[in-house]
Amino acid sequence: MAQENENIDENNSNINSVSDNQIPPRPFRITMEFPLFFTMLSVSLSGAAISNLVLYRTCVHSLNHTQEECQVFLSPARNNGSQHLEEEVQKYATFVSMLRTIIESVAPAILSLFLGVWSDTHGRKPLVVWPLLGMSLSGGLIVIYSMLESLGPWWFILTSIPVSLSGGFTAMFTGSYCYVSDITTKDKRSLRMTIVEASVSAGSVIGAVASSYVLRAVGNVYLLLISAMLFVVAYVFTNVCLKESLANAVQGGISTVLDIKLMKEMFVECFKKRPNHGRAQILLLTFANSLSIFLMYGLMSLEYMYTRQRLHWAIKQYTIYSAFNTTISFFGSFFGVILVQRLFKVTDLAFSIVAFSSSTAHYLIKTFATVSWHMYLASAISLFRGLSSPLIRSLLTKILPPQDIAKVFALMCTIEGISPLISPALYNSLYAFTISSFPGAIYVLSAAITTLCGIFLGFVQYFRWRQTSIIYDSLSNES
Fold this sequence. Notes:
The protein is mostly helical. The chain is built from 17 helices and no strands.
């Protein structure tokens, strides 16, 4: 039987023996951590300021209130003077943000069908360099938009075109994780994936903490200019300083990407029948990770608006909380991988289930938050929630044959690319519909999604438990 010829135990040395034998030991050096840190620093630094700018332009240009009435939306300090406008302005602005997110995600969703397999031949570096160039251009357009007071909120949507056409965050993270997988051995991969996630968290924390202070010091336009320059720094470093992780990569331009054979190869490899319910396990892990990205995109533009409406926060209160939230996740990830996982020999899969369980509690507490400390409590009790994504990716690299890793990551990338086309519409519509009666409904939906992710991983664990007494060779063959 085919199922009697394969081991999917993540700790078994036979699983990816080909891959690990081909990877020579390398000293640790900074690679993707640097550009990801600066990218997230830029996003976090400008995020709330951009939301305020869109709210202000909506208030003035689309709802025709006076500049004096709408000025409170640009204030970095707490100000309850906008409470009578909040609901009206937020309902309109959520649809502007939703449309921008959808446009920003269309091209990455299409490109993700090809890029993973393409990178097996042409290298991982372009998957990071191209999006960073697009982000730099989009950052410049946002600066121009902020300087032109006469432009309404719908003009803001045009700033998403460069980052969309270049592959966006979907391509960048796919390239980054494939790059890290190429340069690390199996026993170091969980830690290195966590370090990559930690660089993302560190950039988010520093940007969130600095945001209100920079805004006070230099104003909106210069803050957005600093944000754009951070994208440029990340682009220059990646393009100039990083070497390609694939030794035999063949140079190829954008014209070689849209090859239907690449898409076909990805789907064939990801959906082929594998021993020990291997196909089901790969798909369940992929969907669990992608659903967590789905809810991230859905909540991305709404959390700040939720805290403004529910708790009457302004940008300063939100950025302090955002920094605390990310810091807790940052230390929880390191503490979890370096101490808890190694000390108690907890597997990647088991720890991922714990992470999703804590995320469910996190969202349920936020649902019923009525005072500020409830938000901080939600973050504190879910310190391991950030581990699900790096550990699932690490597990996939351990149980897959090396030639299939990029293809499965590409499938994950495709699903994640589709997520921004659906989740903002779902979340923004739900928030607009329930803002008057129950704005926490978006967190109930998020809790349901993380619960579903935990159930998916529970099935994977069940498949693995069924085969603990059998020795297998690899996850690659049907035989």
